[in-house]
Amino acid sequence: MRYWIVVVSKDHIARGIEGGFMQANHGKEGPLKRMKAEDWVIVYSPKESYAGNEPLKAFTAIGQVADDKVYQHKMADDFIPFRRNINWFKSKETPIIPLINGLDFIKNKASWGYRFRFGFFEIPEDDFKLIHSEMVG
Model pTM greater than 0.90? Predict the structure, then answer.
């Protein structure tokens, strides 16, 4: 089992939670193909909305990959992103700032936001457990 973080604005992941899916890196297939059924995913939302500038800096969703299917879904004639089915869990929005010092995947605590610029990455199990305990209890 592996543990992933995907960076998605809060408004966009709300649609994913409602529909039972996720997209990564603007609909790219590659990151989604790295995931396997029962892997865990945590969503980090730097902003409230994709188009806006209101910062959030919080973990906003947590779930498990439902199956091994990567599929495309037509959202517009020129935008057919790849998706994965996710079983989302009830969780509370959790600010990242109080957790930074306890997260091993953030090597440079002063420049903690740098790690999230990649949009999708794997984290160690202990980091997952820390975030999970704050979000789900």
Answer: yes
